[in-house]
Write a structure and sequence with these properties.
By secondary structure, the chain is of the alpha/beta class. It has ten helices and nine strands. The strands form two sheets. Strands 1-5-4-2-3 form a five-stranded mixed β-sheet, with helices on both faces. The protein has a four-stranded parallel β-sheet with strand order 7-6-8-9, with helices on both faces. The longest helix has 26 residues.
C-alpha cells in the first residue's frame, strides 16, 4: 500500500507523542499579550486554520501561516526562521496528523497556547477498510478490492480533511474561539461574538450544500485524491479517488480500469482535479473514459488559480462544480 511519501516513520512517532488538547498550554493561566500593537500573535499551520483564526480574532490578533500560498501542505518542511517564529508566538493553531513536520515543531515549541483542531470535532476514517466509499457501491460486490485507495495521512487512520465539512469546521471554530478567549481574556467578548458570526455563516453554507445536493441525478464523483470524504458523507454522496489520500502516488492499471467501469455504471460525467498537484492522471482518465474535467479545490491553500478568494467563495465554487457534474433530477 502506498502512503504519503513525506510521512516517515520517525516523524509519525514524534507526532504520536503529541498528547495535546485543544486548549493545552505550556504553563497555567492565559497568554500574556504584551506586544507593542497589543495583538495576540497566532501562528496557524495552513490556510483553513489561518482563515478561521483571522475571522474569529479580528483586530485583536495577528495571524501568520506556516504554509505559504501554492505550497502543498503535506509537503511542508519547517525552516529555522519558522521555528523561531513559532517559539515567539502567543498561540499556535494546527491540525495534528496532517503535517508531520508541524506536529514535531509544535511539540518542541515553547508557545504558550497550543490548539489542536483534531480535538475540537470528531475525526473519522474514510476508506474501504472501514466500510468507506468503495464499499458503498452495489456494483463493487464481487469485483476487485479497492483497498489501494483507502490510505490515511496519519498512524491513527483518521481523515484530516475536516474543514471541507462546514458543520465540522464550525465545531472547530467554536473551540478556537474558546482558546483565544482563554489566551486573551480582555477581548473574550469579541472572540465569542466573532465566533457566533462565523458559525452562523457556516450554518448557511451547510444549508446551501444540503439543498443543492439533495436531488442530484448522480451521487458519485471522482477526484484526484481522497480529500472530500467528510463532505461526501455529510451530503449523501460517494467520493472515488484516483490516488487515495496521496495526490502524488501513481494509481495501478487495475484501479484506472475499475474507475472507468464505475464511471459508466454510476453516470459519472466529470473527473475533478486540484490546482496544487498535477492534473495529468485526471485528464488521462477523463480522456480514456470520455469524461469532462473540472477543478474541485480541497482548500488547503488559496492561490491565483483558485476559483474564489477565501474559504466561502471557494466552497461555493466547489458546490457549483459538483452540482454541474452530478446534474439535477
Amino acid at each position: 500500500m502506498n502512503v504519503r511519501r513525506l510521512i516517515p516513520t520517525a516523524a509519525l512517532s514524534c507526532a504520536a507523542l503529541l498528547g495535546l488538547t485543544a486548549l493545552a498550554a505550556c504553563g497555567s493561566g492565559s497568554a500574556a499579550v504584551d506586544r507593542k500593537d497589543g495583538k495576540l500573535d497566532v501562528v496557524a499551520s495552513f490556510y483553513p486554520l489561518q482563515f478561521l483564526t483571522e475571522q474569529i480574532g479580528g483586530d485583536h490578533v495577528s495571524v501568520s501561516s506556516l504554509t505559504k500560498p501554492g505550497v502543498e501542505p503535506h509537503d511542508l518542511e519547517i525552516s529555522a526562521k519558522q521555528t523561531a517564529k513559532l517559539n515567539d508566538a502567543d498561540a499556535v493553531v494546527y491540525l495534528k496528523g496532517l503535517q508531520p513536520a508541524v506536529d514535531a515543531a509544535v511539540k518542541q515549541a515553547e508557545v504558550k497556547t497550543k490548539v489542536d483542531a483534531s480535538t475540537l470535532t470528531s475525526m473519522e476514517k474514510h476508506g474501504n477498510e472501514v466500510g468507506g466509499h468503495a464499499a458503498a457501491h452495489d456494483h463493487a460486490a464481487g469485483e476487485e478490492d479497492h483497498a489501494d485507495h483507502g490510505h490515511s495521512h496519519s498512524e491513527s487512520g483518521d481523515d484530516p480533511h475536516i474543514w471541507l465539512d462546514p458543520v465540522k469546521y464550525a465545531e472547530v471554530a467554536k473551540g478556537v474561539g474558546a482558546a483565544l478567549a482563554k489566551a486573551d481574556p480582555a477581548h473574550a467578548a469579541d472572540y465569542r461574538k466573532n465566533t457566533d458570526t462565523l458559525v452562523t455563516k457556516l450554518g448557511g453554507l451547510d444549508k446551501e450544500y444540503a439543498a443543492a445536493l439533495k436531488n442530484t441525478k448522480a451521487k458519485v464523483f471522482i477526484t484526484t485524491h481522497a480529500a472530500f470524504g467528510y463532505l461526501a458523507e455529510r451530503y449523501g454522496l460517494t467520493e472515488e479517488a484516483i490516488n487515495g489520500l496521496d495526490p502524488d502516488s501513481e494509481p495501478s492499471p487495475a484501479r484506472i480500469k475499475d474507475l472507468q467501469k464505475m464511471a459508466k455504471a454510476d453516470g459519472v460525467t466529470t473527473v475533478f482535479y486540484e490546482t496544487l498537484v498535477s492534473d495529468k492522471t485526471a485528464k488521462t482518465l477523463a480522456s480514456d473514459a470520455s469524461l469532462k474535467t473540472d477543478v474541485l479545490a480541497p482548500l488547503e491553500g488559496i492561490t491565483d488559480k483558485s476559483k474564489g478568494t477565501d474559504y466561502f467563495s471557494v466552497m461555493r465554487s466547489n458546490l457549483t462544480a459538483l452540482t454541474t457534474a452530478l446534474g439535477t433530477k
